[in-house]
Amino acid sequence: MTIASAQEKTALPTYDNRTAFADELIALAREDERIVAVCNDSVGSSNLVAFRDEFPDRLINVGIAEQNMVGVGAGLAASGLVPFVCGAAPFLTGRSLEQVKADVAYSQHPVILCGMSPGMAYGQLGPTHHSVEDLSWLRALPGLDIVVPADRRQTRQAVRAAAAEPRPTFIRVGRHKVPDVTSESDVLERGRMLTARPGDDVTFIVTGTLVSRALEAADRLAGSGLRARVLNAAYIAPFDTDALASAARETRAIVTAEEANVAGGLGAAVASHVGTLEREARVPLRILGLTEFAPTGNTDFLLEYFGLTAAGLAEAAREALAHD
User: Fold this and answer.
1) Mean pLDDT estimate for the chain
2) Into which CATH architecture does domain 190-322 fall?
3) What is the pLDDT of residues 205-260, one digit of tens each?
4) Does residue 2 have a pLDDT over 50?
5) Degrees, nearest 5: CA angle 314-320-324
6) What's the whole-number mean pLDDT along residues 36-64?
7) pTM of the predicted model as reported, rounded to 2 decimal places
8) Contact present, 25 and 84 (Cβ < 8 Å)
9) Domains 17-173 and 190-322 alike in fold
10) Crossing angle of the two packed helices 241-250 and 266-274, in degrees rounded to 10
């Protein structure tokens, strides 16, 4: 780790969002007997041990068979249950994409797909275990909600919202520890970005693990007199085009950042909508994320490698503003 990245590490406590996911799922299951969990031999890595122990008849472990897992989830949903289908994000989405398309999105079965340890959370296990293409290929499926919570509170809210109004949904449940960035008054609204920080010079539109880093980048920019708006884009689909349009009209540049491939993800969603705005609102745009397969290393190293740090975000903002 470099000196720069060491200095960026926050003093705030950090948390694994899978714990918040598991706690909320158990609480929901106690309230609603329709709640069931389906997994692919991932009871431990999906943090379902306590759920299994309390509700042994409501956990279905299909083994390492992701396509079958999604199909089972669709069948359970069609039968009136509320299935949370859990598995490592790269395999849940990559191996079973056809089933997600046909059995969930196209058929509109209210399955809640829970992608565990997304992004580069598996670190040294390398590109086979990184889930950085998921936002790209899932955004191509009409009728599928995509939610990327930024912290424990948003994770709990995402789980509870999915159970309250079941619909085809993919929740990216983070493993890489992050600090809390939302407050008790912050409400997760379907298809809406949350303003994590106001500002009128540049806008950061970020999601998941990058929200805390964007807030730190905003602090860095404030030191040089720049006011950065930070939008927490927990919902990738449906997408909040109103907040985006306001950012384009009210600030002088936009920077997006995601722990994902830039081809087709959050940045692509922003770019496609900015292109539809009136000419005066088409501000400079920088899209940060992955552009190649990641090298081997731990998650912090990999985030730094792709410039997904507070320093990297701040520098991208300065570059964008220079072209204003």
Assistant:
1) 94
2) 3-Layer(aba) Sandwich (3.40)
3) 999 999 999 999 999 999 999 999 999 999 999 999 999 999 999 999 999 999 99
4) no
5) 140
6) 95
7) 0.94
8) yes
9) yes
10) 60
Q: In what order do the strands lie in the sheet with 285-290?
A: 194-197, 228-232, 202-206, 254-261, 285-290
Q: Span 17-173: which CATH code?
A: 3.40.50.970
Q: Which residue has the tokens 């275990």?
A: 129
pLDDT of residue 281: 75
Q: 195: closest CA among 125, 157, 120, 246?
A: 246
Reduced to 3 states, what is the DSSP secondary structure of residue 232? strand
Instruction: Name residue 300's amino acid.
Output: D
DSSP state letters, 275-310: TTS-GGG---EEEEEESS---SS-HHHHHHHTT-SH
Domains of the chain, residue spans: 17-173, 190-322
CA dist., res. 211 & res. 180, Å (int): 10
Say how many residues make up the chain.
324
Q: Are 221 and 229 spatial neighbours (Cβ–Cβ below 8 Å)?
A: no
What does the alpha-carbon distance between residue 59 and residue 114 come to, in Å, rounded to a whole number? 14
**Residues sharing a CB contact under 8 Å with residue 225, sequence separation 6 or more, in sequence order:** none
What pLDDT, in 10s, does the model give residues 167-184?
999 999 999 999 999 999
